[in-house]
Amino acid sequence: MSAGHASDQAAGARSGALLRTETLSKRFGGVHAVRNISLTVPERAIFAIIGPNGAGKSTLLNLLSGIYPADSGKTVFADVDLTHFPAHQRARYGIARTFQKIRLFKHLSVLDNVLAGFHIRCELPWWEYVVHGTEFRDHRHRCREEATRLLAFMGLKERARVLAGALSYGEQRMLEIARALATAPRLLMIDEPAAGLNAAEVETLLQRIQMLRKNGLTVLIVEHNMDLVMQVADRVLVIDYGQYVFEGAPAEVQSHPAVIAAYLGGELQ
To answer: How far apart are CA 268 and CA 261, in angstroms?
Structure first.
């Protein structure tokens, strides 16, 4: 890690970090997919991770969400060391994510897909699921109301009864975000949400991300659409070949020689 990178991390820690990693690494056989990545995501910020194809961005997201265990390094979320926690436990602490390749229950309705996200917030006694008493009915009603609100926020309220598999590609992207929001996260991690979207859908996505941050949510986004990143991100981390290249404000990233070299095929120094 460079001296500048270390100072960035220290500054981030002082500003109130929600998520912090220290020298996170992951190998797949002889491939070092992520190598000693340290980052600090401030609370209520929009933090972007960018890099060329194959840079290790999605692998890094899988490490942060617990899909993959790290070979080495540390992940701290809200002052809790989650390094050895699997994905479902991290979700209970308030980390939600979407995937680069859409993962919906395509034979369920749009509404039921969002309702599935509420399961980690349910603390009903087991017998309520058998007898369906008053508490169960009240909980189901509250979940349906909130799911409908989330669908309205993502522009899908009128599609609530449609099968998820019948949605357009852009609508499925929005549905994934709605389902992730149903877990009531403190940190939402979005993997290439603009992929395959048209210009109008990208603009809608940008507005929704900005509204989420305004409402207090922290967002970590992996994205290839540089126009979207430069408009929405507070901080941008650039990686290539699984390694740290640069971190800074969007304007700094656009003009940094190491970033330009990485995107144009130069070698890391």
So the answer is: 8
- Number of structural domains the chain divides into: 1
What tens digit of pLDDT does each residue of 83-105 get? 999 999 999 999 999 988 888 99
User: 167 phi and psi, to 5 degrees?
Assistant: -75, 155
On whether the CB atoms of residues 211 and 236 are closer than 8 A, the answer is no
Taking the CB of residue 262, how many other CB atoms lie within 10 A of it? 23
Can you give the CATH number for the domain in which 214 is found?
Answer: 3.40.50.300
| Amino acid symbol at 97 | R
165 burial level (CB within 10 Å; 0-12, 13-18, 19+)? exposed
| Angle 196-186-201 from CA coordinates, rounded to 5° | 20
Alpha carbon distance 120, 132 (integer Å): 19
Give the per-residue SS3 of 129-142.
Answer: HHHCCHHHHHHHHH
Q: Are 217 and 18 within 8 A, CB to CB?
A: no
Token pair, residue 44, equals 């209520």
Residue 162: domain span: 3-263
**HSE-up of 238 (CA within 13 Å, CB side)?**
24
**Residue 210 and residue 77: Cα distance in Å, rounded?**
22
236: exposed, middle or buried (Cβ count in 10 Å: 0-12, 13-18, 19+)? buried
| Contact criterion met (CB below 8 Å) for 37 and 23 | yes
- In a domain, residue 268? The reply is no
| Single-letter residue type at 215 | N
User: What pLDDT, in 10s, does the model give residues 137-186?
Assistant: 675 778 889 999 999 999 999 999 999 999 999 999 999 999 999 999 99
